[in-house]
Amino acid sequence: MRNVLSSFRLLPIVTALVLSAAFAAALPARAQEPSAAGLWQKIENGKPVGWFLFVDHDGIFEGVIAKTYPLPGEDPNEVCSKCTDDRKNMPLLGLSFIRDMKRDGLKYENGNVLDPRDGKIYKAKMTVSADGQSLTMRGYLGISLFGKDETWTRLPDTSLALLDPAVIAKYLPAQAAAMKPPVSAKPPVAAKKTAAPAPAH
Questions:
Q1: 3-class secondary-structure state, position 171
Q2: pTM for this one?
Q3: In this predicted model, what pLDDT tens digit does every residue of 171-185 receive, in sequence order?
Q4: Helix-, strand-, coil-residue percentages of the chain, each rounded to 5
Q5: Residue 142 contacts residue 131 (beta carbons within 8 Å)
Q6: With b meaning 16 or more CB within 10 Å and e meaning fewer, what string describes 14-52?
Q7: Are 112 and 138 within 8 A, CB to CB?
Q8: Are 31 and 19 within 8 A, CB to CB?
Q9: Is the model's pLDDT at 16 over the cut of 50?
């Protein structure tokens, strides 16, 4: 009888240990959830219209216009002339247009998105798909119900090499340094031979 009672006394302890182990095992899985960080592509009518780079600043995410596809006749060096904040007259290429997105798992909230066409800033939130291959961004005025979704697809990390080096240097300085070719060491310069003085007569 004593052995049976002892096993019942141990049961809550064993259960707690098992639950703790299961919780600890679940933590790395959550840490491995896909992130919005990386390069995304917007497609309209089957054609790419823009690439967006998202950078993680300790859990606060920023989105940048990383590549543009100007139509014939459009200015490839367009600036945000209608912006009213620090982005006034900044080039669209490399423009920070999504700011302050706070991550909560696959969701990102309390951010804002700039429409460079009119300079207006809207509230925004985002969601990354469970497989990490699509990102849905919703910009809205007032409440989320009155808004519009855009869904972008992830590009491979190798696509970073196709971006303007100035964008990489500004937002991904570590990668920019790694992408620079190593400075080749110059071969040592041979010492000049001096002619031996002629013997005196």
A1: helix
A2: 0.73
A3: 999 888 876 665 555
A4: 25, 35, 40
A5: no
A6: eeeeeeeeeeeeeeeeeeeebebebbbbbeeeeeeebbb
A7: no
A8: no
A9: no
